[in-house]
Amino acid sequence: MHPMVKPALRRGWRDLNTVQFGMAPAHAIVLGPMDTATGSFLTLLDGTRGLPLLRDEGRRMGLPDGHVDGLVERLAGAGLLDDATGGGPAADALRGRKALLDRLRPDFASLSLVAPGPGEAIERLAARRSLRVQVRGAGRVGVVLASLLAGAGVGEVDVRDGGRVEPGDVAPGGLPAESIGERREEAARRAVRLAAPDRPPRRRRAPAPDSPGSPGSPGSPGSPDEQTPPPAEPTFPEGRAHLLPDESGWSLVILAPRDGLAVHAPDPAAADQLIASGTPHLYAGVVEGTGVVGPLVLPGETGCAGCLDQARADRDETWPRLIAQWRSGGVRHVQACDLALAAAVAGLAASHALAFLDATAPAGTGIRWEASVPEPTWHARPVWPHPTCPCGAAERGKEEHTPGDGEPHETMAEQQPPTGSRHEAHAARLSGTWRAHV
Questions:
Q1: Which residues contact 295 (CB under 8 A, 6 or more apart)?
Q2: Whole-angstrom distance, CA of residue 125 vs CA of residue 201
Q3: Helix (H) or strand (E) holding 156
Q4: % pLDDT > 90, the chain
Q5: Is the separation of the CB atoms in 169 and 139 below 8 Å?
Q6: Average pLDDT for 335-348
Q7: What is d(CA 17, CA 363) in angstroms, rounded to the nearest whole number?
Q8: What does the alpha-carbon distance between residue 175 and residue 169 come to, in Å, rounded to a whole number?
Q9: CA distances to 177, 194, 269, 427 from 143, in Å
Q10: pLDDT digits (tens, 9 = 90+) for 276-292
Q11: Cα-based distances in Å from 240 to 61, 121, 360, 374
């Protein structure tokens, strides 16, 4: 281990015996008492020295035996310490690609604030390269969202949509003006490639049985293994194994339709295959000047589009009639989707997606975040599992409380993750407070 105080947090002395790490209350920590010699020793925790050398340095500075180990343990327990050599083989491979890591250093620093263990932040950052995300929708929200995920280091980000780019699809960070008239799907994928810090890792295929010399098998003449070494296999933190995709699956699918109706009232049938395959999926888009992010659906565990639709029908008997008219395909309407709101939706959706993929929090499960112009303030609207929805989420949450129509909506802080789920492991890791907030 090569201990290093996380560089993302600025350090300052509140008095002669108390040091504060960080400025923003969400992640700031105060430690004390701390004497002057120990404070000076902190500058040596820069990742260039292992523990034996640090102990020698501590003795030269007059620190008592065991003090260095105690300090390192104390800082690690507070989530302030990183390991400059930790994270496993995938992290080592990432460190070996300086240009790539330099592009991702701000993301790495941000992850270090929520990944408490030494070496855990770069482990999660490296693991992103093995994940596959599909974005369905190549409009003002979808392409910006896909580009954000690719730029943050997600290994494969695919975009699906039909038709050709129209002038209204153009957005900063998304489709450029010169793509007008091109096929949306091709233009969107090109934008995503330009946003990515590196080419996506090659997906290795298993060699045919009993064919060690077959093309593409390890060690065979002209095989890819001789040309480019395969990326190191990531070591996933506890609770992330479910994100490993199979040969054709996706770690996450994001539905970001250009049609505002498909955001406001998503058709449950459009997600039938995702529900059946157990694929996590997230909704994001803009409808009539209102941005919508969520819900993040964990099939069979949290409320889905079908649950949302049936709950609305329960509350409003005219809902089925209205939705039938809206979906009838009448006059085409201009989508009210201004650039600022579209960018805000893309950013919030990308944050929720990355939090889920990194297993740092069960962000957005069973919740729709909504904000409307002209002064968008985000509000959380829970999407509860519906007992008649075939998704089966209500069966899993029978013991959970379901509010009545007159009860207030919960905020995200009040919304509890589903118990007993495959995502419970990483949620449980966050349940114990390890930060001493200022």
A1: 282, 283, 302, 303, 304, 308, 364, 365, 366, 367, 368, 383
A2: 14
A3: strand 156-160
A4: 60
A5: yes
A6: 94
A7: 38
A8: 7
A9: 13, 12, 24, 30
A10: 999 999 999 999 999 99
A11: 43, 14, 10, 39
Do 45 and 183 lie in one domain? The reply is no
Q: Is residue 49 located within the same domain as residue 188?
A: no
pLDDT band at residue 206, thresholds of 50, 70 and 90? Answer: very low
Asked if residue 326 is part of any domain, the answer here is: yes
Q: What is the CATH number of the domain that holds 142?
A: 3.40.50.720
Q: Find, among 153, 178, 155, the residue nearest to 165 by Cα.
A: 178
Total number of domains in the chain: 2
Range of the domain at 66: 3-83
Number of residues written out for the chain: 438
Structure tokens at 230: 């395969």
Task: Compute the chain's Rg from CA coordinates.
Answer: 24
pLDDT tens, 149-183?
999 999 999 999 999 999 999 999 999 999 999 99
13-17 CB contacts, 8 Å cutoff, 24+ apart: 13/39
Strand partners, 4: 46, 82
Q: Give backbone dihedrals phi and psi of 82, rounded to 5 degrees, phi first.
A: -120, 170
Strand 3-5 relative to strand 81-83: parallel, antiparallel, unpaired? Answer: antiparallel
Residue 356: count of CB within 10 angstroms of its CB: 23
Helices 120-127, 98-114: crossing angle, 10 deg rounding: 120
